Structures are given as structure tokens and as C-alpha cells.
């Protein structure tokens, strides 16, 4: 029996790992101009969502197809997130901690940061799965974020906790960095896609037990 064949359990795991490593490399290369990070993240989520849906896919080919198709809209969404972060930083700069009105503006700063975080977590996966204008996709991002709070918490933890330990643990930083360079970004996206696929599945034309829909849900998908 060949334990490394494509049909074996070990062979499937190795194939998945190799795919995630290749996707991770594609993602990092496409993020180098920084301004294209949104398009790269959308393409990464498109690929891993297809991996969850169809199992056997040409993930790298799908990555670049999605990157070409979504780069304008995804870049606009990425610029919006950067603007929200810049606005919160500017407010903190002009009204630092300890100033008389800092407490008032700290609320607006936290609101901007939360909005930027929510869009960062949900907008690009939504954009990868559904075809619509940016304003509508942003509304769908809020819909999906609050539809299942447990999923939101899980996605937040998967996205933020590994990065937190990478930044604060100086002794383990070289190992964390190596993992991020090999498959960290694609592995996080693949883990998040498990939740996103289950959120999106009732609206992707796929038969599920939970077939109820809302007027706020997408009506056009790209899968």
C-alpha cells in the first residue's frame, strides 16, 4: 500500500499542506505593493473557500483569477479600511490620553477601530463569495458578522491571537515568523473559511437544512 498516494490519508494531508504553502507564497508576493493587499486577501479567501466547497481544486489558478477579477473593488475596500485606521490615529494624535476631551473622542476612536476590524475580517471573504457593488458588500459584511456572534469570536481569535503572540513573544519570534512565511496566512484563512463557508452556504445555491434567507442577504454569488 502506498501511503503517499493522492488517495491515502497522508497523501491528502501533504497535498493540502503544499497547496497552503503555495497560496501563502502567492499571497505574500501580491501583498508586496501594500495597496494590493485587499485584492490578495480576497483571492486567498476565494481559493480556500473553493477548497472547502469543491475539495479538489486548482487553488493557485483560482487565486490569480480572483485577484484579476476583484483587484479594483478589493483595493477600494482596502483603502477604506486604511482610511478608518488613519482617522482613528489622527484623533488619538490630536486628543492624546489625559486631555480633557480625550474620553469623548476615545469612543469615536474605538468605534472606528471596531469598524475597520469588522471590515478587515468579513469584507474580503464576502467579496470573494458574492458579486455586488462595494456598498452592498459592506452591508452584507455587517449582516454576516452579527448573524452568528460565536463565529465572529472564533474568526477574531484565529485572525488575531497568533499574530499577537508573534509580536509579544521575542524568544519564539523566529519560529513564528517561519510559520507565517511558510503557511501562516493561508492556514489562518483556511481555518476561517470553515466558518465563512457555513455562513455563506445557504446563499450559494447549495442545499442545506438552514435554507432561510433575509432581504439583507446576497442574491448573486460567484461560486
Walkthrough of the structure:
This protein is mostly helical and 223 residues long. It is 75% helix and 0% strand. The chain has seven helices and no strands. The protein has helices at residues 9-31, 37-54, 59-94, 102-129, 134-147, 149-168, 173-200. α2 (37-54) packs across α4 and α4 (102-129) crosses α5. The longest helix is centred in the middle third of the chain and has 36 residues, at 59-94. It starts with 8 loop residues before the first helix and ends in a 23-residue tail after the last helix. Residues 207-217 have low confidence and may be disordered.
Write the layout of secondary structure elements.
Blueprint: H1 9-31, H2 37-54, H3 59-94, H4 102-129, H5 134-147, H6 149-168, H7 173-200
